[in-house]
Specification:
- Strands 1-4-3-2-5-6 form a 6-stranded mixed β-sheet, sandwiched between helices.
- The chain folds into 2 domains: 192 residues, Ribonuclease H-like superfamily/Ribonuclease H (Nucleotidyltransferase, domain 5, 2-Layer Sandwich); 60 residues, DNA polymerase, domain 1, CATH 1.10.150.80.
- Helix 5 crosses helix 7 and helix 9 packs across helix 11.
- It is globular, with a radius of gyration of 22 Å.
- It has 12 helices and 6 strands.
- By secondary structure, the chain is α/β, with parallel strands linked by helices.
- The longest helix has 21 residues.
- A hairpin with a 2-residue loop joins strand 3 and strand 4.
């Protein structure tokens, strides 16, 4: 059975959608993105379910997608996701904030005696009795136009979320674990926000085996690499791999010939 949805592919329609749903009691959403080739994940599609129906938003053709994220973080109602780390990070990237009532069904499921982390496919089967198709799991969401079957597939990522969230909320309440969820999601949000603000140089393998001077070199190289990758919109490892950052920091040299002699250096 086909799913009815609104296709939103221009700025005016996006603003109108946000205006019409600014007091939505709940929103379930998901994103399709590609992260293998660019400095930041390339957002390709946003799927949204509200009490009024389904909308598919095309960030490839809408040059300014900020109104969506601003609308989302201002919502008074619950925002429902599955394994929503990437979606949370998109909120922080675009607005510096996140929705106040963030309900992740994967996290909630882990607190009611199901396995963790549980896949969306298993959650749908367990809580709705439906089976999701696999036909479009290899879709390149950057390509346009998207075919009807791809859009139908995308809708199924949000259609069941409200039902699943309601059932999980009920189970948490019945088992006296609602507070557990609140504690877990608060800690999770704090971790994500701290990561968003922090630099990542100290997460490179081997960095804490370096001397203080070598760590300073590694930090400077990491910052240069990030700036270069961002300006070229490529993955940082394509500029300089972590292991090469650590090795160069150990060498403590500015001699171009010696630097080029390091195995793995490509320029």
């Amino acid at each position: 059975m086909s799913t009815s949805y609104d296709w939103i592919a221009d700025a005016a329609s996006l603003v109108d959608f946000c205006r019409r749903h600014e007091r939505a009691a709940w929103v379930a959403f998901d994103t399709e993105f590609v992260s293998e080739y660019s400095y930041r994940p390339q957002l390709c599609l946003i799927q949204v379910a509200t009490p009024s129906g389904i909308a598919l938003i095309d960030p490839v053709t809408i040059t300014d997608i900020a109104p969506f994220w601003e609308w989302l973080v201002e919502l008074p109602g619950r925002v429902i996701v599955h394994a929503g780390r990437a979606e949370f990070e998109f909120c922080l990237r675009w607005t510096g904030r996140a929705p106040s009532d963030w309900f992740d069904v994967q996290l909630a499921a882990g607190l009611v005696a199901t396995e963790y982390p549980i896949s969306f496919r298993k959650l749908v089967d367990r809580f709705t009795g439906r089976s999701l198709g696999k036909a479009e799991t290899r879709t390149d969401w950057r390509r346009r136009p998207l075919h009807k079957r791809q859009l139908e597939y995308a809708c199924q990522d949000v259609v069941p979320l409200k039902t699943i969230a309601d059932k999980l909320s009920g189970q948490l309440e019945q088992r006296g674990r609602t507070m557990w969820y609140e504690e877990e999601i608060t800690a999770w949000r704090s971790e994500r926000m701290a990561e968003d603000r922090a630099e990542g140089w100290d997460r490179m393998a081997g960095v804490f085996k370096l001397s203080g001077r070598q760590r300073a070199v590694a930090r400077a190289l990491w910052r240069w690499r990030e700036s270069e990758a961002e300006s070229r919109n490529i993955l940082p490892r394509r500029v300089l791999r972590d292991d090469l950052v650590i090795e160069l920091a150990k060498w403590e040299t500015s001699d171009p010939k010696r630097i080029r002699s390091l195995r793995g250096m490509e320029w």
